[in-house]
Amino acid sequence: MTDLLKLTAKDFKSDQEVRWCPGCGDYAILAAVQGFLPELGIARENIVFVSGIGCSSRFPYYLNTYGMHSIHGRAPAIATGLASSRPDLSVWVITGDGDALSIGGNHLIHALRRNVNLKILLFNNRIYGLTKGQYSPTSEPGKITKSTPMGSLDEPFRPLSLALGAEAGFVARTIDSDRKHLTSVLRAAAEHQGTALVEIYQNCNIFNDGAFEVLKDPETRDSALLRLEHGQPYTVNGEEHVHDVTDPDPTRAFALSRLSEPTPIGVLRAVERPSYDRQLNAQLEQAVTERGEGDLGALLSGSDTWMVR
After folding, report:
1. Within a domain: residue 25?
2. What is the pLDDT of residue 128?
3. Is the torsion defined by CA of 121, 244, 177, 8 positive or negative?
4. How many degrees, rounded to 5, is the angle at CA 54 between CA 122 and CA 65?
5. Is residue 308 part of a domain?
6. Per-residue pLDDT reduced to its tens digit, 133-152
7. pLDDT tens digits, one per residue of 226-238
8. Is 307 part of any domain?
9. Burial per residue of 251-288, b for 16 or more beta-carbon CB atoms within 10 angstroms, e otherwise
10. Do 46 and 79 meet the contact criterion of CB atoms below 8 Å apart?
11. Segment 7-40, tens digit of pLDDT
12. Rounded to an integer, what distance in angstroms lies between the CA atom of residue 15 and that of residue 265?
């Protein structure tokens, strides 16, 4: 057994002080990710976490891997360049409901559409936490916040529905406080070749405390949750179905993504299709084989260049 396979959660903890509000759900997610990463069997220098802006986006500071705290909403774009140019790396994106679905919405949907080999963890607390409690793209209608004192008028995004509409091959949901379930979903996402989107319900105990309490309370969670497992039956509105994450038709997965009572958790869809980075690098290899190495100087001074006097 090599030293690489002996990595533990401690090896993935950085020397930085973790600075989230006491009781924040991000702590539980961080602990789960640090505990899961040794399972990958990948050297720390071959793992990269790229984040945008927001409370969740402090994540790269706390992991002893390569990482980048980038700019608002642009983490998928930066991670796309990295995953495409370095297909040997395990590239993860950390984002929140505001970062991913507001200013970063366009970058998110195109990463999903292209099927870049990224694992995107979307922390959804249905509020802007870093900027102190404004409503977010996932806040429910009527939500009273500092920026919506009379209640939000917006219809919220449903991240999983959005991802399926963008042709995402892997779509899942889990909860910050359920360590076992969260780890199982992370494991499934890591095994998927292509873009994997994992929505994580995460409690903001300062600005939106209890947003998911009905899904966590031992007295209500069993009836409030629909736990999905591939090949296992589930019942919705009196009809029994067998869950098939590999169904190429996203209709059933989309219908599940629209449910709120009960709320589905687990993998909704896991369909393999060629990833963008592999196809891109295959084109580059073909171009070199057929035409030889490129000439940057010739490209810059080619026939489509003019001199303006």
Report:
1. yes
2. 96
3. negative
4. 70
5. no
6. 999 999 999 999 999 999 99
7. 999 999 999 998 9
8. no
9. eebbebbeeeebbbbbbbbbbeeebbbbebeeeeeeee
10. no
11. 999 999 999 999 999 999 999 999 999 999 999 9
12. 33
Q: What is the dihedral of CA 13, 15, 20, 26, to 10 degrees?
A: -10
Structural domain total, the chain: 1
Q: Look-up: residue for tokens 């409030």? A: 224
**Cut 0.90: pTM above it:** yes
Q: Is residue 227 part of a domain?
A: yes
Q: Write out the residue range of the structural domain in which residue 42 sits.
A: 4-289
Are the beta carbons of 144 and 150 closer than 8 angstroms? yes
Token pair belonging to 156? 């919220």
Q: How far apart are CA 62 and CA 79, in angstroms?
A: 18
CA atoms lying within 13 Å on the CB side of residue 196: 25
Give residues with Cβ within 8 angstroms of 295, minimum separation 6: none
Domain with residue 24: its CATH number is 3.40.50.970
Q: Which residues contact 178 (CB under 8 A, 6 or more apart)?
A: 265
Angle value at C-alpha 31, between 77 and 218, nearest 5 degrees:
110
